[in-house]
Amino acid sequence: xxxxKSSNDDVTDRRLRxxxxxxxxxxxxxxxxxxxxxxxxxxxxxxWWAPVALVIGFAVANRIKVYVRLRSNLDxxxxxxxxxxxxxxxxxxxxxxxxxxxxxxxxxxxTGTSAQKTWFAVGKEILTVSTAGAVVMAWxxxxxxxxxxxxxxxxxxxxxxxxxxxxxxxxxxLAIASGSTVRxxxxxxxxxxxxxxxxxxxxxxxxxxxxxxxxxxxxxxxPLLVACIHLWxxxxxxTREERRAWQSLAKTTGELNAVDLTQVLHAGATRSxxxxxxxxxxxxxxxxxxxxxxxxxxxxxxxxxxxxxEPRPANQVSIELIANEGDVQVGVLNLHFRARVKxxxxxxxxxxxxASALCTAIRNxxxxxxxxxxxxxxxxTGLANRRELLEHAxxxxxxxxxxxxxxxxxxxxxxxxxxxxxxxxxGDRVLQEVAHRLQSAAQxxxxxxxxxxxxxxxxxxxxxxxxxxxxxxxALLATLDRVIEVDGMGLTIEASGGIAIAPxxxxxxxLLRRADVAMYQAKRSGQRTVNYxxxxxxxxxxRLMLGGELLRAMAAREFIVDFxxxxxxxxxxxxxxxxxxxxxxxxxxxLTPMQFLxxxxxxxxxxxxxxxxxxxxxTAITTWREAGFDLPVAVNVSPRSLLDPEFxxxxxxxxxxxxxxxxxxxxxxxxxxxxxxxxVVERALGKLHEAGVGLALDNFGTGVxxxxxxxxxxxxxxxxxxxxxxxxxxxxxxxxxxRSTVDLARSLHLTVVAEGVESEPQRHALxxxxxxxxxxxxxxRPMKAGRMLATLRRGSxxxxxxLAEALHDGGSVVRxxxxxxxxxxxxxxxxxxxxxxxx
Length: 839
Known about the structure:
Layout: H1 4-40, H2 49-63, E1 65-70, E2 73-78, H3 81-90, H4 93-110, H5 115-138, H6 152-178, H7 182-187, H8 190-213, H9 221-256, H10 261-275, E3 280-285, E4 291-295, E5 300-305, E6 316-322, E7 329-336, H11 345-376, H12 386-398, E8 404-413, H13 416-422, H14 424-441, E9 447-452, E10 455-463, H15 466-478, E11 484-486, E12 489-491, E13 494-501, H16 507-525, E14 529-531, H17 541-544, H18 547-556, E15 559-568, E16 574-585, E17 589-591, H19 593-603, H20 606-626, E18 633-636, H21 639-642, H22 647-658, E19 665-670, H23 678-691, E20 694-700, H24 707-710, E21 717-720, H25 722-726, H26 732-747, E22 751-755, H27 760-768, E23 773-775, H28 785-794
Parallel strand pairs: 13-14, 16-18, 18-19, 19-20, 20-21, 21-22, 22-23
Antiparallel strand pairs: 1-2, 3-4, 3-7, 4-5, 6-7, 8-10, 8-13, 9-10, 11-12, 15-16, 15-23, 16-17
Helix pairs in contact: 1-4, 1-5, 1-6, 2-3, 2-4, 3-5, 3-8, 4-5, 5-6, 8-9, 9-10, 9-11, 10-11, 13-14, 20-22, 22-23
């Protein structure tokens, strides 16, 4: 299959051959007509030297030229009219035609011109001489060596008719070779052409007058006059061409001032072909790119890898594209011609100027492309980043061709342990492999992005139905099931995915939020993927994501704290309480932290919210102490609070203001999530622990923390998750987990608290397994501080501070230790995440 370029060449060559053939046929007709005329009306034989001199005159006249190159063809302004008109007033027209044809054929043969161009030149010469001879004969002029005739009107008419025939034969050839039209070629420099014809006519008329009137003294002035006129005309044409060349070069430099590399290369190829009249221009990029761009003055003919580019003819002019520093080469510019071309000094300088501008444009566009890529892609994995994902999704929303759009949000489970155990370089290689697998499994139209850390996203487009999104998501996450080999180790990566279909309103931000909600639901439920369902969305942006709601809630003190007692399982006596934050929303009722905490964290109001919760907890402690109930209170802590360097000082300042001992406050942390920025969190917990504040590990048994890490945490309590408590009477596995937790806590001198105790059988089973404390609906539901005090005063069975009957008479009250020493000075906190505030 031929390329467009080679196909166009074939068409051009065929048209040129047809045109040359037509000129030759017409010339043969003219030659035959002159032969017939010479035989019909014989003329005396001229002296031998006259035809020889005329042949030489033709040869010399055709060597005095002004070259205007167009591709590998030359637009030539020459003095060939002079010997034609001189010959027609000295010799019979058939002899002039013969001398012109012989001179042109011999001259072309000696210069090595191709056969096609030689035939065309000889044919055109015969046509022009024949036309001039016919005009001279029509005016009745009789040529003579002794008494040459001089008729100004006849000479001028013959001159211009001859010029019209000459250009009529030449312009179509030039138009075909340049891919232009005859009209465009004729209009090009028409003023210079007309002036040149008039200027050349003057010395010709003067010379013929000298021949006719015999004033041979003037003949000495003719060569000087001709030379002066020739130099003036040549300089005028050259100046005009140079001015236009610089204007074209300046325009091209503006076109090269683009930030898109493809646009720069395409403009460079087409404009260089136009400026330097090349059949084709080629830009070859180096430095690992191996990209080749080829073009004519009209279009781009190739853009691709160098290995797939067809070879080009050897007739070319090349220049390296080297930066001004001289040590950075970005590529090579090749100008291809059909015939050998030697550039003039001016053209060489112009080419160097163009190459310098092109090199600068390529470097600028490449640098911009690198910056644009870096701004839109993750540096570790090469995937799109959050910004690129949002922009791509916004375009997909606005496109009618994108079909249904969905977002899959992926989070790697327990990935923090890879970094903490094997180091960040190993974690980076795992992330790169995850990115590679997701990218390889994604559809071509999908966009895979890394949002940060171990969180990835895949924008799914062109979905015919929502069910296809689930199918694609399952296939993508399945690629992560295979073991990842890193440094000779096989690592298994688990991931959770949330799927959200593009909403009708809210745009990209709402789509991302919904996918995030679904992803966390997948994590909590242990499922691989979860589809977003509006009915299960506990953080409806329409109700809770408005900053004005939070400001109003803070001012109106809508955030309140309920308290749930923690009792000794054996005696039923209250030994502490847990503070549970609630939002009393005027429209939506009582909301739990799961419904509003994320909004608070992202709003920037978290310090004020945490301070309000702590203030109410310490106020309750003070009130209960004054009433005779000295109870510690546990307060759940948000991870973002611990990342605030001012949080420890704020807590200790609150304790001081209320006059509450530090050991009366317990901060609950969750085991199921991993703490980011460990050093900052560890520093905060260390300050609080040293001050005497208690620490409790919530939801113990649901995470994957190692025992060695737990031994480093300066904890006072372990709280058993309610799921194990609910199954303690029916599941041997749950009982085994609780027993092992109690044994572990005993060895570390920790107190164990069971959450969610709702029945007496559960209470008995927990106590028999060694668990000493518990909380749940069996004893009391969460309540306000005032009601909690009333409940403590009322007690059970006439005993204040007791909420259940003792399991036996010897039941003892187990107090929560005020402080535990690790024996190693300040303890370091291992890699745990802190849970959000509890429900």
